[in-house]
Amino acid sequence: MFFNANFRKPRNRAKKGDCIGGNPKVGTLNGVLYMDLAGSSLCNRETVPFLYTDSAMSCLFCKIVEGTIPSTAVFEDDLCYAFADLHPQAPVHVLVVPRQHIDSLAGAHLDDRPLLGHLLWAAAEIARTKGLTKGYRVVVNTGEDGGQTVDHLHLHLLGGRPHSWPPG
Ligand code: AMP
Ligand code: ZN
User: Fold this and answer.
1) Mutate which of 66, 85, 103, 155 to test ligand 1's pocket (most atoms within 8 Å of Cβ)?
2) pLDDT for 58-112, tens place per residue?
3) Which of 149, 154, 157 has most ligand 1 atoms within 8 Å of CB, for mutation?
4) Which residues line ligand 1 (CB under 6 A)?
5) Structural domain range at position 136
6) Mean of per-residue pLDDT scores for the chain
7) Average pLDDT of 3-30?
8) Looking at 87, 109, 118, 154, which residue is catalytic?
9) Which protein residue's CA is at the shortest distance from atom 18 of ligand 1?
């Protein structure tokens, strides 16, 4: 089943006249897999309604969001999914990820601003639920220097112990 939470509106819409195959319902264009949800050829369509990028198809956190890789759910809504980190660095260590695939904070676009705010709100909501009244830390490792190891935007919510500064 192709319809899942990782479809997202394309950032670069295919233009009318772009052709990704003979009479495709599915095809790739510039490394992006396009799905023609209307069931007709993309060749003469003004725009493509949704896409599912190659990176999303092979992404660990996309698979966790889909449920094909197991996780311990902590919170979820229509925009995000939060689950326990496999290698917790604090008594509370939760990852908050958008359901849609975004590589990293560096890949966020202007129209992602509401989603970014929602992820922060979700982290705070989880912290409230977990009773982290003494405080907590929210971390977004970004890129190589930032120590990001999974290329799907995620917030670390760390709590239940004091955190030093500066971080390592
Ligand atoms: P980062 O290094 O900021 O990209 O964070 C990636 C986080 O994902 C690390 O804290 C890992 O422990 C965590 N992680 C990796 N695989 C899994 C998994 N299957 N389930 C839960 N957390 C995971
Ligand atoms: Zn992903």
Assistant:
1) 85
2) 999 999 999 999 999 999 999 999 999 999 999 999 999 999 999 999 999 999 9
3) 149
4) 60, 69, 71, 85-87, 95, 141, 147-150
5) 66-159
6) 79
7) 41
8) 154
9) 86
* Ligand 1 atom closest to residue 71's alpha carbon, by position in its atom list: 20
Amino acid identity at 113 = R
Q: Do both 110 and 46 map to the same domain?
A: no
The number of folded domains in the chain is 2
Q: Is the pLDDT of residue 138 over 50?
A: yes
CA of 147 from ligand 2 middle (Å) equals 17
Ligand 1 atom showing the smallest separation from residue 85 Cα: 22
Residues 107 and 152 in one domain: yes
- Asked if the structure places residue 41 within a domain, the reply is yes
3-state helix, strand, coil in the chain (%, to 5): 20, 25, 55
DSSP 8-state symbol, 157: E
Q: Respond yes or no: is residue 154 known to be catalytic.
A: yes
- CA-to-CA dists, residue 92 to 24, 79, 140, 157, 162, angstroms: 47, 22, 16, 7, 12
Say whether both 70 and 53 belong to one domain: no
